[in-house]
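Record 1 of the preview.
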Amino acid sequence: MSVSWGYSPKIEKFIPLGDFPADKYLIVAQQAIENLGWKLSHISETGLIAYTPISFQSYSEEISIRIHGNFAVVKSECVGIQMLLNDYGKNDLNLEKFFHEFEYVQFHLKDVWEERITAFHTLIAEQDDQYFEKAPLAIKNKIKNVLYLFFPQKGYSVTPIVLILNIIAFVAISIISAFFFRYVLAHSENLDAVEIRQRMQNFTLNFGVNHRNAVLGGQYWRLVTYQFIHGSLSHIFFNMYALIYLGLMIENKLGWKQFLFIYLVSGICGGLVSLTFHQEGIMLGASGAIMGLYGAFIVLLLNKTFERAANQALLLSTLIVSFLVLINGAFGKNVDNAAHIGGFISGAIFCYLFTVKPKVEIDFKPWKRYATASLLFLGFACSMIYFSPKYQTEEFKLLSYKFNGNLEYLNAITNLKIDLPKHAKLQSIKEDGIDRMEKNLVIIKKMQALNLKKQEAKERDRKVKLSKVSYRAVMLMYRDINGDSTFRYSKQTSKALGDMFDLLYGR
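->
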């Protein structure tokens, strides 16, 4: 059994007809397909299309036979998404079954040719021979090799442009990042970990990634630009793989304008939902927009936009893939599932608005559909931005890092050796205690100006108390050592130290 690999796994066989009439070949093929239990979708003078049944091993494959001159092109192609880019041998097995059954049918029809030919020509006289251009995999069939995926053509015009923009952005950002990180590493001797991290974040923000405070601060353009930025080769590969598949399947059904609207607006909605779940950090990638296309695809399938036999296979495979993406987002690390869900729901809603056919006669012109979708989008976006408070979580974490770093110096003065000279003790308390705690008092003032979530505000209150108690404790230590070289602390100092340790260790 041969395994077929590729973006859309398929196997084609070119059968020379010789003296065998094309109509007789199609008659035999039709009967063979019916014998195998496959669903015949279309038959005409130039060929036929059928679909294998859905099973645990298969979403279904499209079986097509096209007559080209003196050849019959017999093809089996996967209908749904193949997760590992191969067909697990299904297409080869389908053709093996077909050709075996073909020989059997050819032998048994030899005595009824005239009757079957008359019935065949009566049937095809009523068929649309242009159906092959409308079939679910029609656009896929125009993709002769991988290079064709990058060139706009009828029914597939916006997708390659979006694909190219994503690739250009990824290559450019990768090159710039490589030079920047090399520069930072070469000049990191005079920088501490906090400064290095801050530089890295500022550098990343310059590319236009999605960031809660930046967006809520008025940089709304980030909700579009973040969709074209990817963090790794695997990140962009799987996103673009899904984009191409969805573009081939639904851009020709929606039209390029609706397709692009759903893509961009779903990405924006996904980014807005993501902001409500991520108080800090950056969000990037086209997955929110792509999940919007999955939502739109499912709506088209539920509305039976595709041929009935193919519709079931496409719906099953799309639901399975969407479910797996959302499950992976729920349990995977560094996956923005909020953007996935927000994009998926918004894509489904907007596609419904564009494609719904009212039961009553309503003059629902295209511009009215766009207006309704745009108003709904603007209402959602404005609500999300207005009701999302601007928390300064990242600034708080940065200040907390510095605050905790200063507290670590207390270990040096709480473990002073008794035999140290008095001046050395005082110098240590001054440098590692008083000076550091005074810096913490300045940090606390900055913290108190921040707008924080309830849990972070509670932690800030603890740090406020700790800063005051620790400063008082080191000042009393300095007073006691300065007045008594025997290194004995007063009861007041001992209590202050006890209070400090209680706050430090949560006792």
